[in-house]
Design brief:
Blueprint: E1 7-10, E2 14-17, E3 23-26, H1 28-38, E4 43-49, H2 51-57, E5 62-66, E6 71-78, E7 81-88, E8 107-110, E9 129-133, E10 139-141, E11 147-149, E12 163-168, H3 176-183, E13 188-192, E14 198-202, E15 205-209, H4 222-237, H5 240-255
Length: about 260
């Protein structure tokens, strides 16, 4: 893609180890790109991984920073408790990784999964909407790779009126106190709660929006579907509550295996 896309995603594509030991491609950039493409949006991805892995997994235009490793996650179950491990990590993505032709995209979505984006360097890009799925900045891991929640304070230069951040309450290990602390930094923050709906913070003021519980048949990537639909609708209409309700509807269609629509 030589022309400017409407929607640019930045973050690591991942290799997710399945219970049977096989590898499945994943990561927010993968799922969000599929959603944007299905909704008819011109989308492109900037990632770091083993090049062939990304080329095989991504069907949209993409730029790969070659890395010795692909970021690899494995979930280990101890009874009913899921413990997540990061087995390998691709290289950090610097700001200059974005191709020049893509830097003027109206929607820029930073989608880290393993603290791989150096936000301090992102000072020269001015999209109309800066979407952040902040999961990857809320993760730390020990010497064995066991992932845990860590508190994070965003740099002031990204907390601008055009910024919209999204995370799951699971990303915070259920810590609502940490959520409220972070909501004080962002002008707009949406916290998803699976079947419990979502809580929307606008300048620190919280509004809860319920969603209709359904039996999930395709739950993988539902949070990324939600975030992508949210960013696209908010970009179009600038009504965060309406965009959140719409994102719930799109995510519900995804987990039910139904066709997506904007």
């Amino acid at each position: 893609m030589t022309q400017t896309p409407q929607y640019v995603l930045v973050g690591h594509i991942t290799a997710d180890v399945q219970i049977d030991g096989t590898i499945r491609a994943g990561g927010t950039v993968l799922y969000a790109a599929r959603v944007a493409e299905a909704l008819g949006v011109a989308v492109a991805v900037v990632t770091a991984s083993e090049p062939q892995f990304a080329h095989t997994a991504l069907s949209v235009p993409h730029h790969v920073v070659p890395s010795v490793h692909t970021t690899t996650f494995e979930n280990v179950y101890q009874g009913d408790v899921r413990v997540q491990y990061i087995r390998q990590r691709a290289d950090t993505l610097p700001a200059e990784a974005l191709p020049l032709a893509w830097r003027s995209a109206p929607i820029l979505h930073y989608a880290p999964v393993a603290n791989e984006i150096a936000l301090a360097e992102v000072v020269s890009l001015h999209p109309q909407l800066l979407g952040l799925t902040i999961q990857g900045w809320l993760r730390a891991w020990d010497a064995l790779g066991r992932v845990r929640f860590c508190e994070w304070q965003p740099p002031a230069h990204i907390c601008q009126p055009h910024c919209l951040a999204v995370a799951s309450i699971e990303d915070f290990a259920g810590d609502w106190q940490a959520v409220h602390a972070l909501a004080g930094h962002f002008p707009q923050l949406v916290i998803t709660q699976a079947a419990g709906g979502a809580t929307v913070f606008q300048h620190g003021v919280a509004t809860h929006l319920p969603t209709q519980p359904v039996t999930a048949t395709h739950p993988t990537g539902a949070g990324d579907v939600f975030a992508t639909a949210l960013f696209l609708r908010f970009y179009q209409h600038a009504d965060l509550l309406a965009a959140t309700a719409h994102a719930h509807q799109v995510a519900t269609r995804h987990i039910l295996g139904q066709p997506l629509s904007i």
